[in-house]
Amino acid sequence: MRKTNAARLLDRLDISYELLEYEVDEEDLSADHVATALGIPLNQVFKTIVLRGDKEGVFVCCIPGDTELNLKSVARLTGNKKVDLVPTKDVLSLTGYVRGGCSPLAMKKQYSTFLDISALDHDFIVVSAGSRGAQLKLAPQDLVTASKAAVEELTL
Quick check: pTM over 0.85? Predict the structure, then answer.
C-alpha cells in the first residue's frame, strides 16, 4: 500500500500507527462497512465530518461510526449559532480528500479539529488514512497530538 500524506505526517511526528487496507465498496462508504471489512468494533472506527459554521467557518469533527453528531452542541462549542455539513462537492477542494477517504490529518489547510471524548475509552481508534481503502490505527491521544484536536462531547 502506498503511504498517504496523513501517514507521512505521523512519520514526521514520530507517532506509531498501523496502516490498514480494506476492499472499497463504492456503493457503501460507511463506517459500518469499514468496521466489518477490518473486523474492528464500529465504535472504534471514527468518521471525519467536515462542517461550516455561520461565524467561525470550516472545522472538522471525528466521531465514532455508531453515533450521530449533535449539531446544536457543536455549534455552541465552536462559537457558531448554526453549523452545517459541508456539501460533498466541496469536500475535495477544502480538504484535498474525497468523501469516504477524508482524514483528519494533513488536510490542505489546518482546520480546527474536534475529537469525540469517547475515543479516550479505547487503546486504539481507526480513522481514514486519506484515501478510500486505507485506515490509520493509532492511539487516540496520538491523533489528538497530530491533529491538534480538542477533545469534547460531540455526539447525541
Answer: yes
